[in-house]
Amino acid sequence: MSRRCELTGKAVLTGNLVSHSNRKTKRRFLPNLCNVTLQSDALGRSFRLRVSANALRTVEHRGGLDAFLAKASNDELAPNVLAVKREIEKKQAVAE
Question: Is 53 within 8 Å of 59 (Cβ atoms)?
């Protein structure tokens, strides 16, 4: 399982750990990933996702998973979340 947010695409970054004597050693900056269950209002189902804490705050700020996916670009979403987005768009197109 990769260390990548399924909603925003945040992944591991690399950099240097700099000591007091200014020695540099490689280190990794890991995203703050959480296993969460998000509810889709349009589909009436819940989905288990691995998202960053920042993405979770954004989902709540935008008003839920459906609103977040409506604004999200397709290239940063994971394949399973992209399928959920398409399913929601189909459901909303039928409702109109």
Answer: no
Q: What is the pLDDT along the chain (96 residues), one digit of tens a residue?
A: 789 999 999 999 999 999 999 999 999 999 999 999 999 999 999 999 999 999 999 999 999 999 999 999 999 999 999 999 999 999 989 877
- H or E element at residue 59: helix 53-62
Q: What's the CA gap between 49 and 96, in Å, rounded?
A: 28
Q: At residue 4, what are phi and psi to the nearest 5 degrees?
A: -140, 135
Other beta carbons less than 10 A from residue 29's beta carbon:
9
Contact 52, 32 (CB under 8 A): yes
Report the C-alpha gap between 79 and 95 in whole angstroms: 25
- How open is the CA angle 83-52-60, to the nearest 5 degrees? 75
- Dist. CA 96–CA 88, nearest whole Å: 13
